[in-house]
Amino acid sequence: MSVKQFLKDWILPIAMLAGAGGYFLFHYAGFLSPVKPAVWKVVEVLTPSLIFIQLFLTFCKIDFKDLRISRWHWIILAFQTLSALVMAGVLIFVPMDETYREIFEGAMVCLICPTATAAAVVTDKLGGSAARITVYNLMSNILAAAFVPLVFPLVEVHQGTGFVSSFLKILSKVFPLLICPFLLAVLIKYLWPKAHDYFRDHAGVAFYLWAGALALAIGQTVRSMHNSTAPALVLWLLAAAALLSCVLQYWFGKRTGLAFGDSITAGQALGQKNTVLAIWMAYTYLTPVSSLAPGTYAIWQNIFNSWQLWRRNHKGGKPVARN
Asked: Keywords assigned by UniProt (predicted)?
């Protein structure tokens, strides 16, 4: 097996192990303590920078004519809305112990969380449509920005800002990182075609940049889990709730997309989540403990993505999608 093939098959597990190992190295190696604050600052800047570059490269590949809404977009958007509303209804109307509330809150966040900003990169690598998942990314972010300030305060009462402020705050965390690389790709395509062709021909680099961003994200996830004061049982229950949410959403997305010849794209659109945003939403509008659910969701979804990539690399063939 060549080094290139090995990386194609195992780069996501390697990135996840590197992220977790990197965190524990900095946590337990005393001689690294003086540089830890600087490292976390670098991570905060490097993560969005990597996402921006990888999205820009991916957007250089897409055909802008494919940026249109398909019927499956509305079906999985309705599923995402209704499933999160069911969780909210249980939390509002069914009395339960605080521990179980945190489990259901964690599941609700995993369901309403929008599509991962960099999902287009993985979808493209799997043979799906980067254009169609970008459309759903916008739709799911608008949904989350409206749902969270309307419904979450009914579940957990907090003194906070109003609907409009919360709506704009959530969108501001995602839209610049999603829209700006898209606009840059459009501008370069029409103003500097040769450069656009160069970036399009080297768009495969985006996947490896995504692996680097994944390592940083997993390191941050492990950090939040390791620093949590939640009992081990609660952590395991939250992980189980996240796993069930992950399986359900990937299954429904793929099953729905299959009817439209777009199983990969629909599965990733509903299943691959922006867990960093989900952690922030749970921590801000619900409880710190419930934020551990999207943290473990990040692990589950990337284990599944690793398997999908391995399977595609060994099976070959690119599906043909239709609308």
From this structure: Membrane, Transmembrane, Transmembrane helix
Name residue, tokens 């509303």. 85
Angle, alpha carbons 293-114-228 (nearest 5°): 20
Question: What is the pTM assigned to this prediction?
Answer: 0.85
Q: What is the DSSP string of 42-70?
A: HHHHHHHHHHHHHHHHHHTTS-GGG-S--
Residue 131: both structure tokens together? 């254009």
The DSSP 8-state label assigned to residue 115 in this structure reads B
| Per-residue CA distances from 211 to 110, 202, 276, 323 (Å) | 22, 16, 15, 30
Please answer whether residues 135 and 66 qualify as being in contact, where contact means their C-beta atoms are separated by less than 8 angstroms: no
Amino acid code (one letter) for 64: F
Class in CATH terms, 33-315: mainly alpha
Distance separating alpha carbons of residues 321 and 267, to the nearest angstrom: 13
Residues 94 and 98: their CA atoms lie apart, in Å, by 12
Q: What are phi and psi of 89, to 5 degrees?
A: -60, -40
Query: Per-residue pLDDT tens for 30-70?
Result: 888 888 788 888 877 887 888 888 888 888 887 778 888 99
